[in-house]
Amino acid sequence: MNIRKMESRDIVSCAEILCSVYNNELWQCIWTKQTAAEYLTDFFEMKKFVGYVLEEGNEIMGGIFAHEKVWWNNSEIFVEEMFIKPEQQRKGYGSMLIGQIEKYVTEKGLAGITLSTNKYAPAPAFYRKNGFADCEHVLFMAKEMV
Fold first, then answer.
1. In the 3-class helix/strand/coil scheme, how is the chain assigned residue by residue?
2. Phi/psi of residue 123, each to 5°?
3. For position 36, what pLDDT does the model report?
């Protein structure tokens, strides 16, 4: 496995993986390849985008989309999306991508890494295993308008 910096040509493959990961009963999403590509392109085009792909040979197995976020005492990395092909999960590849982001944070002297995820999916256990903690002082809020 090889981790490299993400390039624009990787968006299509990443969109296909995103669809395969989230279009199921667990996540209950209905992504099309087009909307997934548009969604990921928005992150890729962010001014302070940080992204990596995990590949074997020339095949992308997963990706992580993040960005540097200015904060009052020190900037941090916010992870927008991370996914590994379903058949490649539970092999340590997600931890490898998180490790790459940790390396970036350390090299840049940033404060840390933040993210949000679905508390009813297996993802929180994965992130806790990788050293993340639940933030009792943060409340994620939403207002649905449909």
1. CEEEECCHHHHHHHHHHHHHHHCCCCCCCCCCHHHHHHHHHHHHCCCCEEEEEEEECCEEEEEEEEEEECCCCCCEEEEEEEEECHHHCCCCHHHHHHHHHHHHHHHHCCCCEEECCCCCCCHHHHHHHCCCCCCCCCCCCCCCCC
2. -55, -45
3. 98
The predicted model gives 73-101 an average pLDDT of: 97
pLDDT of residue 26: 85
Distance separating alpha carbons of residues 109 and 93, to the nearest angstrom? 24
| Structure tokens belonging to residue 21 | 């990961």
The one-letter amino acid code at 13 reads S
User: What is the residue whose two structure tokens read 């993400």?
Assistant: 6
C-beta separation of 11 from 37 below 8 A? yes
Average pLDDT for the chain: 95
Query: 23-79 pLDDT, tens per residue?
Result: 998 888 999 999 999 999 999 999 999 999 999 999 999 999 999 999 999 999 999
Residues 6+ apart with CB under 8 A from 52: 3, 4, 5, 6, 63, 64, 97, 100, 101
List the structure tokens of 18. Answer: 């995103």
